[in-house]
Amino acid sequence: MTVSRSRRTLFLGGRSAVASERRPPWTSDSFTDLCSRCGDCIRACPEQVLAPGDGGFPQVVFRGEGCTFCGECAGACPEPVFDLAREAFHWKATVGNTCLALNGIHCQSCQDACEPRAIRFRPRLGKPPEPDISEDTCTGCFACAAVCPQDAISLNTPSETRETSHA
């Protein structure tokens, strides 16, 4: 029995077959309509951040150091799926309460891994510096989260980031 896309959406709690937070970089909400699921982008990705997902659509699965935005996935795709003029990812990094620096232990691994320098550490009197992430500068590449010894960094949409920071 084949499950229709609308039924799949219902079973997934109203979410599309490929959740928007897992789409490959530089893709839009029309991704599932344009993607032929050929796998060329997955095979082209040198960082291996793309993998087959639900329904055979490529999805982002961070397993290593993150996305370097090399564009190999976009170059390999025969369909008009990728738009390099778009923002690559809509999610941003957030720091959770298990962060070593927030718990009085000197650590700046995430800042060292952040190529766009979206993470800065603010000095605190008598305590280790505290991480501050610029939502405007963060690319959502996952490099900071990959090196965090406490897995204290997560990637969230900007609205989730604001909700988390006010909690």
TrEMBL record:
Where can this protein be found? Cytoplasm
| Cross-referenced Pfam families | Fer4_7 (PF12838)
Q: Which cofactor does it need?
A: [4Fe-4S] cluster
Keyword Transmembrane helix assigned: no
Q: Which UniProt keywords apply?
A: 4Fe-4S, Cytoplasm, Iron, Iron-sulfur, Metal-binding, Repeat
Q: Name one GO molecular function term.
A: metal ion binding
Q: Which GO terms describe its cellular component?
A: cytoplasm
Q: Where is [4Fe-4S] cluster 3 annotated to bind?
A: 138, 141, 144, 148
Q: Which residues form the 4Fe-4S ferredoxin-type domain?
A: 24-55, 58-87, 129-158
Q: Where does [4Fe-4S] cluster 2 bind?
A: 67, 70, 73, 77
* Taxonomy, superkingdom: Bacteria
Positions with a binding annotation for [4Fe-4S] cluster 1: 35, 38, 41, 45
| PROSITE patterns in the record | 4FE4S_FER_1, 4FE4S_FER_2
List the CDD domains: NapF_like (cd10564)
Q: Which family does it belong to?
A: Belongs to the NapF family.
* HAMAP family in the cross-refs: NapF
The free-text function statement in the UniProt record for this protein reads:
Could be involved in the maturation of NapA, the catalytic subunit of the periplasmic nitrate reductase, before its export into the periplasm.
Give the quaternary structure: Interacts with the cytoplasmic NapA precursor.
Report what the protein is called. Answer: Ferredoxin-type protein NapF
To which species is this protein native? Marinobacter daqiaonensis
